[in-house]
Structures are given as C-alpha cells and as structure tokens.
C-alpha cells in the first residue's frame, strides 16, 4: 500500500509539474507561427518554421498528455459508465486500464525501434530542405509515451487504493465545469 | 486442381508507392496489376498509395522491418540512409532525358553501386528508371532567375537544398496535401515534376504557370523489396516481378515522353513561361559547384559524381538530340 | 479469415470496448495495435501505432487546433462575450422569445471567433442560461437553444471539424469554411423561426421582458451597446481576410486569430491571472484529448486500410448492391447519424470518413458540399445521447433544476430543425457552394 502511495505521489507529482510547464507551449507555438507570418510579410519566408511548429505541437500534446490524463480530460463513453457508483467505476477502470496499457506499450515499442533507427546510419534526417535530425523529437515522443504509461499505471494504483481503503485516492480534478470534457 | 492449391499458398505482399492514387494509376498500378495477373494467384500484391499505411518519412524503416514488403519511391524523398540519397529524385542537371537513367544504371555502373549500397542496409533494391523532368508550376509567373526568390515550393529535399541559393523556400509536406497547400497559401507552387504529373494529379488546377526550364531532365526512381520477403520468393516469381517492373518502365517512358510534349503544346490550364537559356545557365553553373560539394561528402558520392560527369561529357560531345545543343 | 470479416470484427470490438467506459483513445488504440500485431506481428506490425504519430506530426493543419481552442477559452473565460450578451438582451428583449433569439445571435457571433462548440457552450451555460431561467423562460427551450446554438461553432467558419475533414478529403480549407458560412446562417435563421413560432403559440415559453425593465436602459446606452458587436467582427476579419486573400497561410491565420483574441482580452482588462490560468490549462487538456484520439484513430485507419476495407465498402455499395448514387449518399448520412449518436465524433471522422469520402468523390458528388453535409451530421452527433461533447458540457454546467432527462428532451425539436437544414442543403447544393464559388472563382 505505501509503495503504491509513493508511486502515485512520485509519478503524479512529476507529470503534474511537467504538464504545468508544457501548458505554456501554446505560446511557443504562437511565437513560431507568428514569426513565420512576420518573415513572410518581410519578404523572406523562413523554411524551418512549419516543421518547427510541428515539433512543438508534438511536444505539447505528448509531454502534456499525462497531465491531461490527471485532469480527466480524456473523454469516455459514459452511457453505462456514467451511472456507475464510484466503487464500480474503480472496478471497471482497474480492469479496462489494461487496454490503455497495451496500447501505450505497443506505441512505445514502435517508438523505441523508430528512435534506434534515427540514431543509425549517421543519424536520420527529415526529408525536408532544412533537414533536422529526427532523433531529438523521437526521443521526446518516447519519453512522453513512457510517462503516459506511468500515468496510466498510476491511475490503476489509485483505483486499487480506493478499492482497498475506500478513500478516494484521486484529487477531485473535475471540480470545474470545463474539466468534464 | 493445381490452380486452387496454388491460390491457397498465395504469397501476399503489401506494396506502397510514393504517388497518390491519381498518379499511381499510371506509374505503379500497371506493374502491380501485371504481376498479379501473371502470377495466377501464387503472388498477390496489394497496392497502397502515398502515406496510406506508413508516412513517406518512415517508409525505409517500414520496409526494413517488413511492415510493408515493397516500395516504389526515390532515394531522396524516402530518406534513404545510404550515400545514394541525394542522387535519387532529381540530382540537379544530372540527366537530360528519360532514357538517360537506364543508360546510367545499365551501361555506366550505377546498377552495381545501388545493389551494393542497399545490401549493406538490409533492403533489396530491384530496379531504377527515369520519369519526367523537374520543371516548375507556380501561381506567380517566373520569367527570370530572380523570380525564384521568395517562392515557397513543394520540392525534393536535395532539389530544395540546391534551389535555396536562389531564394526558393523549399517545403516538404505529404504528397497528397500539396494541392490543398497551394490553395491554403502554404505553397506558391511546385518544383516537383513535368507537366504530365501537373495535369494528372490536379496541380494544374491550382497553379497558373509552367516554367519550361528544368533543373533535371528525369526523375530517378526505384523499386525496393523487403530483403527476407524477396529471398523467400521462388525464382520464377522473382523473374515475373522483374518482368512486370520492366514492362512498367516501358509504359512510363512513352506515357511521360508523349505527355510532356502534348500538354505543353495543347494543354489549356497552364501558361508556358521560359527563362532565356543564357540566363538559366546561371542555374546550370551553380549545379557544377553543387556537384563538387556533394562529391566531397564521401567516396561513393565521388564515384557517382564522376559517372555523371563522364556521361555528360559523352552526350555533350554527341550533340543533339542527346543534349540541347 | 477473410479481410472483410476481420475489419468487421475490429469495428465491433472497438464499439464494445467503448461501452466499458475506458478512455476513448485507449479503446480505439488497443484494437488498432493488437490487430496490427496479430495480422503483421512477425513483420513489424507493432510499429503502426508510432507510424501514426509521425503521420499526425506531418498533418500540419492540426496546428490550428490548439489555436482555435485557446481562442474559444479566451472568449468564454475573459467574459468578453458578456457585452455581446447584454447587447442582444437589450435589443431583443421586447420580442416574445426574444432572449432566446438573442442567444442564437450571440452564438453565431461566437461561432465566428472559434473553431469548436466548446466556447459557445461555456458562454451560453454561464451567461445566457441563468439569465433566461431568471426571466421564466422554459427550461427545455433554453437548454435546447444553447446546445443547438453552440453547435454552430463547427459550421460557421473557422471550423476545426472542417479542417479535419479537409485533410481527409484533400479539399481546400478556405473553400470548405466559406461553404459552411451560408448554411450556418441559414440554420441559425431556422432556429430563430422555430423559436418565434413556438413562442407565438405559447407565450409562456419565452415571456417578453417587462416594459419598465426595457425602458430602464436609455436609447443612447442601447446604441453604445451595439459597439460590442464590433469586436467579434474585427477578430473574424483579422483572421479571415489575410487567409482568404492568401497573405497568410491557414496555420498562420489561426495563430493571428488566437493572438488577436488574447490581446483583445488584455486590452479590455479581462485577462486576469485566474482567467489566464484556466485558458492555457484547458487548452492543453482539450488539445490532448483531441490529439490522442486522432492518434489512435489514425492507427486504426491504417490497419483498416491495410485490410482493404475501403475497397470492400466501395464494392459493396456500388457493385454488389448496385445502388443509385443518391441512395448511397442518403444511406451514408443515415449511418453517420446512427454512428454519431454512439461514437466519439473525432474518432468517427478519422475512421469512417476515409472509408466514405473516396466513394462520395467517385460517385461524382462535390466534396466541398459533402463537407458541409458531414459537418451538419457532426452537429447532430454532438447533441444526441448517449455520446456527444455538447451533452457532456451541458451535463457538467447546467444548474441542478435541469435534469439529465430535460437535457435529452430539450434537443429533440432542434435536432428536427437540423435534419431539415441537412435535407435542404442536400437538395440545394448552391446554398453551400455559392459563396466559395463567388470568392474563389473571381
Ligand atoms: Na466557428
Ligand atoms: Na452523439
């Protein structure tokens, strides 16, 4: 039990902080696209902005993903689920989280293979004229997916703790209306 | 009956082409259809178009792992991890005509180099052939080299690297998104193909001008297979696949050669523009420096650049129609 | 096992898993990667999931997603829409059902400033809903108005749904957006006509504001309030004019729009610390929700494609059943409607649209027009139980006197109006195509 608690505190704490930083990524994205607009108006459109914006977007939603999961942002189809008691929800989640874990695990597997490839043959470079090396973004993606996996395990841990102790291990993250979505 | 027995043991391949469905109809599908018909159920190849199963950037790894079994693409846009990468697609001013490509491969030694380099990275290279030249189709008209400045063009990585010195902003996006990207303003046009492809895939509908000057006379594209899947193929099917590919080369040779002439002469969607040859020579000369730069990158690169030089000196000495006079 | 059967099995497994209440992206992604591993496992089937992530990265129009979400939140959280509401309140209060009509007007203006229905929903539920209930408006009427009105956010440009559709159908976003404008206004007008008729027949549904309350606001102030309507038009113009003229690209325009909305809130002194915090946190949350669903759905789509499901569906409709193109089109819309009531709309778009859109093109229909039909279907899906974003939001935001049953019942007449609108645009494609033709063919 105390191991589970420590795990939850560690993972949730880390992902929370990371997410709070990634949240500001919207402005980084805006800045790159703003610069892109500006450079076009100035007459020399830059060749790296679109791809850079794509990299930022990937960082934004993959590294921010675990925090979004904590917030309860991921929609569920709640035709039946919505009417369950909290206890029943926890039971269901503790089982069906297996789907999520398998998905994230296989996603990570593919990611690691692709990242290994990105380091081979002198380093994979993007097929664009800017030709950035692909390993940095792939590493970011793998780290993000791995953190997502850890967060999903933490959700499982919280459900187990709740079922064992009867005390909600999850902070009430859906207090604000918009959080339901 | 033997036909049924064979059908039960059919070998299945997933094959992805660089082209979208409209162009793939001409550049890849005839080959796959030919093989499937002739294989009489022993080999069934399913054809997928650009980015359908894996995105073009991941094509090579997917081929290595066997997520897909065969590919039609060029070394450059599929980000080949070999030193051959820049030479696929459009290596600036390396060729003048579509037939230069098979000559370079079969008579000047490129075939052996390609075979060897791809064997090193665990992929079976099957065959290369020429296609259309690399012209420009744009929304703004180009009548001088200076007009290239500031144009955002969909182009190949190496062509983009070369054209950047003239102020071109090269963009690389998924093939099927290029047309829409012109309409949404992400692109001003393409430096990607001859006029046949412009009309076939619909780019002629969204751009207004076609520049008859090119930066290369023929696209160099290849067919590849997953090494293990190729090895597993019985010899008679190997011959069949190669025969299908050769038949496809022949079809494309005439399809492009005839299409380029006819659409320039009678097409009504793109207005032709030409930069005077004397002025375009500036671009050709820049290619010479670019060749030297690439040759410095390694031994293989040096060897290939030398082959291009040798061949170009031969055709220049031979005169028209081998060169433009 | 024949491929068609595997495809069917995948689809039905996914549906079953969705009903377990697990996160939508987890259920879809699980079916996708497991199917890929089972089918092609020995040969790299495991990399389909990650390939989808690279594909998604290269789908550059999705960069607009966080921008439009951010815009929506700035608008709703910073309360710059309050002035707008007051404008409609004062000017429309004298009509029977006038406040409900004004709310539709408010929703149209908000729709022009954001790409989803979330913002309209939030603004409607926080500003309009309590006011209208206080004025003794019928709660079913009010709830329906807000849900239906906010769904205009995806039809009136800019629209995130049309951006996604544009990527799948390979059609220009600019023309699709313009195509949505007139049908969006038409639908708003139809809502208004419905409200007027209902309130004429039964004035209790939407009582007229008392005269003394209306007269309490002097004419000068009334005129001054009209200025509130200028801001949305300015933000809309700042974003759309450079885009339609090709001065800025799609993604750049979205960033310009987001920046404009942000600056407007700052200049009006509404961008407090708390508002700022909510805006960027919620933008991250909603963006992640969408992106992870699309990521999983793309992998699902790639496996589906690999099974030749697209060809199978085309064969089924055109050759085996030998149906008339219009019958096929209507069947597709019906199946979209049915699936839309159950499924997550984004996932539906990424999984089902690639199956249908090529067929629509092959049958000779205009894909711009079809994009509008598709979007209206999505609007309906947003509101219909058991699964819909607007339903989620309404449930979360509605005051306790509005029960779940009320929410479900309230949408019925509005869904009826939407189906009439859908049929109208189907019968008269020019309603959608007139504006893009006018702008782009000159
Ligand atoms: Na909108
Ligand atoms: Na629904």
User: Which quaternary structure do these chains form?
Assistant: heterotrimer
List the ions, cofactors and other small molecules found in this model: sodium ion
Tally of strands of chain B: 11
Order of helices and strands of chain C: HHHHHHHHHHHHHHHHHHHHHH
Estimate percent helicity of chain B: 40-55%
Instruction: Please give the number of β-strands of chain C.
Output: 0
Overall pLDDT score of chain C: 86
The main pleated sheet of chain C reads as: none
Strand content of chain B: 15-25%
Major β-sheet annotation of chain B: 6 strands, mixed
Features:
heterotrimer, A: mainly alpha, 6 helices, elongated, disordered C terminus, B: 325 residues, alpha/beta, 6-stranded mixed β-sheet, binds sodium ion
Compile the SSE list and pairings:
The complex is a heterotrimer of chains A (about 180), B (about 325) and C (about 450).
Chain A: H1 2-22, H2 25-41, H3 49-63, H4 65-71, H5 86-119, H6 135-165
Chain B: H1 2-8, E1 11-17, H2 21-27, H3 29-38, E2 43-48, H4 59-65, E3 70-73, H5 100-107, H6 110-120, E4 123-130, E5 135-138, E6 152-155, H7 157-163, E7 169-171, H8 178-183, E8 189-193, H9 195-201, H10 203-206, E9 209-211, E10 220-226, H11 227-232, H12 235-266, E11 271-273, H13 277-295, H14 299-318
Parallel strand pairs in B: 1-2, 1-3, 6-7, 6-8, 9-11
Antiparallel strand pairs in B: 3-10, 4-10, 5-8, 5-9
Helix pairs in contact in B: 3-12, 13-14
Chain C: H1 3-19, H2 24-40, H3 48-58, H4 64-77, H5 81-92, H6 98-111, H7 118-134, H8 139-151, H9 160-169, H10 173-201, H11 211-215, H12 219-225, H13 230-244, H14 250-267, H15 273-306, H16 309-320, H17 325-342, H18 345-362, H19 367-383, H20 389-397, H21 404-427, H22 430-440
Helix pairs in contact in C: 1-2, 2-15, 3-15, 4-7, 4-14, 4-15, 5-6, 6-7, 6-8, 6-10, 7-8, 7-20, 8-21, 9-18, 9-19, 10-19, 10-21, 10-22, 13-14, 15-18, 16-18, 17-18, 17-19, 18-19, 19-21
Bound molecules: sodium ion (NA) (2 copies).
One sodium ion binds near residues 111 and 115 of chain C.
């Amino acid at each position: 039990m105390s191991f589970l608690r420590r795990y939850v505190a560690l993972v949730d704490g880390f992902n929370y902080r990371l997410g709070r930083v990634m949240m500001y990524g919207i402005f980084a994205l805006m800045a790159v696209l703003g610069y892109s607009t500006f450079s076009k108006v100035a007459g020399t459109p830059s060749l790296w902005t679109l791809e850079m914006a794509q990299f930022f977007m990937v960082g934004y939603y993959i590294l921010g993903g675990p925090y979004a999961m904590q917030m309860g942002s991921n929609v569920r189809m709640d035709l039946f689920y919505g009417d369950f008691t909290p206890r029943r929800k926890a039971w269901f989640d503790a089982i069906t989280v297996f789907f999520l874990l398998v998905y994230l695990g296989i996603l990570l597997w593919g990611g690691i293979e692709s990242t290994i490839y990105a380091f081979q043959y002198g380093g994979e470079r993007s097929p664009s004229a800017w030709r950035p090396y692909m390993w940095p973004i792939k590493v970011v993606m793998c780290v993000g997916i791995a953190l997502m996996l850890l967060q999903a395990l933490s959700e499982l841990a919280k459900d187990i703790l709740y079922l064992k102790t009867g005390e909600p291990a999850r902070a009430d993250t859906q207090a604000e209306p918009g959080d339901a979505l | 009956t033997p036909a049924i027995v064979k059908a039960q043991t059919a070998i299945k391949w997933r094959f992805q082409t660089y082209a979208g469905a409209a162009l793939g109809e001409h550049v890849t599908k005839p080959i796959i259809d030919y093989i499937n018909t002739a294989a009489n159920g022993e080999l069934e190849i399913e054809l997928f178009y650009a980015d359908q199963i894996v995105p073009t950037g991941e094509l090579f790894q997917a081929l290595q792992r066997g997520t897909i079994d065969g590919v039609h693409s060029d070394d450059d846009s599929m980000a080949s991890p070999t030193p051959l990468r820049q030479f696929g697609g459009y290596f600036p001013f390396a060729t003048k005509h579509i037939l230069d490509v098979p000559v370079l491969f079969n008579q000047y030694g490129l075939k052996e180099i390609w075979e060897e380099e791809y064997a090193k990275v665990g992929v079976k290279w099957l065959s290369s052939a020429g296609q259309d030249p690399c012209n420009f189709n744009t929304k703004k008209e180009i009548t001088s080299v200076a007009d290239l400045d500031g144009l955002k063009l969909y182009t190949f990585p190496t062509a983009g690297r070369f054209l950047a010195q003239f102020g071109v902003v090269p963009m690389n996006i998924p093939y099927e998104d290029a047309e829409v990207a012109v309409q949404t303003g992400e692109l001003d046009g393409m430096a990607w193909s001859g006029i046949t492809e412009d009309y076939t895939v619909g780019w002629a509908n969204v751009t207004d001008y076609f520049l008859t000057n090119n930066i290369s006379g023929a696209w160099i594209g290849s067919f590849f297979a997953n090494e293990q899947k190729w090895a597993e193929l019985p010899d008679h099917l190997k011959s069949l696949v190669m025969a299908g590919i050769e038949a496809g080369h022949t079809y494309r040779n005439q399809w492009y050669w005839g299409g380029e002439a006819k659409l320039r002469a009678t097409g009504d969607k793109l207005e032709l523009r030409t930069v005077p040859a004397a002025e375009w020579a500036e671009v050709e000369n820049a290619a010479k420096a670019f060749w030297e730069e690439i040759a410095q990158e390694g031994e293989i690169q040096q060897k290939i650049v030398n082959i291009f030089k040798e061949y170009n000196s031969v055709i220049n000495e031979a005169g028209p129609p081998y060169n433009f006079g | 096992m024949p491929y068609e059967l595997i495809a069917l099995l995948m689809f039905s497994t996914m549906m079953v898993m969705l009903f377990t209440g697990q996160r939508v992206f987890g259920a879809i992604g699980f079916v996708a990667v497991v199917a890929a591993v089972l089918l092609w496992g020995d040969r790299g089937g495991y990399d389909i999931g990650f390939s989808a992530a690279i594909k998604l990265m290269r789908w550059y129009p999705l960069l607009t997603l966080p921008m439009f979400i951010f815009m929506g939140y700035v608008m709703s959280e910073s309360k710059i829409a309050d002035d707008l509401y007051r404008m409609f309140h004062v000017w429309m209060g004298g009509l029977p059902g006038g406040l409900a009509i004004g709310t539709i007007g408010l929703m149209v203006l908000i729709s022009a400033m954001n790409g989803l229905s979330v913002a309209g929903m939030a603004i409607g539920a926080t500003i309009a809903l309590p006011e209208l209930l206080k004025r003794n408006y019928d709660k079913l009427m009010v709830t329906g108005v807000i849900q239906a009105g906010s769904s205009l956010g995806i039809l009136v440009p800019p629209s995130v749904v049309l951006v996604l559709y544009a990527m799948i159908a390979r059609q220009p976003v600019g023309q699709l957006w313009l195509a949505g404008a007139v049908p969006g206004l038409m639908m708003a007008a139809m809502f208004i006509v419905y409200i007027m008729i209902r309130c004429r027949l039964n004035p209790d549904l939407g009582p007229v504001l008392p005269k003394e309350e209306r007269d309490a606001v002097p004419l000068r102030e009334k005129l001054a309030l009209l200025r509130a309507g200028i801001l949305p038009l300015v933000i809309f113009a700042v974003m759309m004019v450079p885009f339609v003229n090709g001065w800025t690209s799609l993604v750049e325009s979205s960033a310009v729009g987001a920046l404009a909305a942000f600056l407007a809130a700052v200049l009006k002194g509404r961008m407090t610390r708390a508002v700022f915090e909510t805006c960027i946190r919620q933008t991250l949350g909603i963006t992640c929700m969408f992106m992870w669903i699309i990521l999983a759905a793309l992998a699902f789509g790639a496996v589906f494609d690999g099974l030749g499901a697209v060809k199978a569906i085309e064969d089924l409709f055109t050759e085996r059943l030998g149906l008339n193109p219009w019958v096929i089109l209507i069947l597709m819309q019906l199946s979209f409607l049915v699936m839309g009531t159950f499924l997550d709309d984004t996932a539906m778009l990424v999984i089902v649209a690639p199956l249908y859109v090529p067929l629509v093109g092959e049958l000779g229909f205009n894909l711009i027009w079809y994009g509008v039909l598709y979007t209206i279907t999505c609007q309906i899906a947003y509101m219909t139980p058991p699964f819909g974003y607007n339903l989620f939001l309404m449930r979360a935001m509605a005051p306790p006197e509005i029960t779940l049953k009320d929410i479900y019942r309230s949408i019925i007449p509005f869904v009826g109006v939407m189906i009439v609108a859908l049929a109208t645009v189907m019968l008269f494609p020019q309603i959608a195509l007139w504006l893009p033709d006018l702008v782009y063919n000159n």
